[in-house]
Amino acid sequence: MALPTVYFARAGHDGPIKIGYTASDPLDRVGDLQTGCPWRITLIGAVSGTTQDEARLHALFPHLRLEGEWFRPEPELIAAVDSLLAGTFEWPAEVAEPRVLPEQPDISDIIWAAGGPNRISAASGGRVTPDAIHKWRRNGIRDWHWALLMSLCDVSVEQFYKANLAAAQSAAELRVA
Known about the structure:
Layout: E1 5-11, E2 17-22, H1 26-34, E3 41-48, H2 51-60, E4 65-67, E5 70-71, H3 75-86, H4 107-113, H5 117-123, H6 130-139, H7 146-152, H8 157-176
Antiparallel strand pairs: 1-2, 1-3, 2-5, 4-5
């Protein structure tokens, strides 16, 4: 499989379907997802794609979203996955192009890419409140939250580091002024 890829994985025999993106081997990514999951996760398939393609697919099925990138396995989603894997999928004209993440995102860009404060809070199981997430713009994102955010969006450790450094410099300038 050519990298990068949009992949489709399933939890259990008839469980939810994950629409994800990876810049590495999709089988490795499924292996990472398997850690701590009580149901066997299997790779349904993968196609060459970008984070924008992944976001466009998510935008097609908001009514089927369970949490994060996991969706109910309804017939319309299964048919779309099958046609993507067969190379016959046609993008609907009404799906808007998603905003593109800049090469060096700032904290606000990272929060947006991860789906916003409410999605991040939900993905944390409520351990991080939306209010705390809004404060990241001023204070930076603590490194123990990076893994959660990296599971929700395609931002590298280096990008997190640079975004946090810029936030710290901005906060220092405000304190001096």
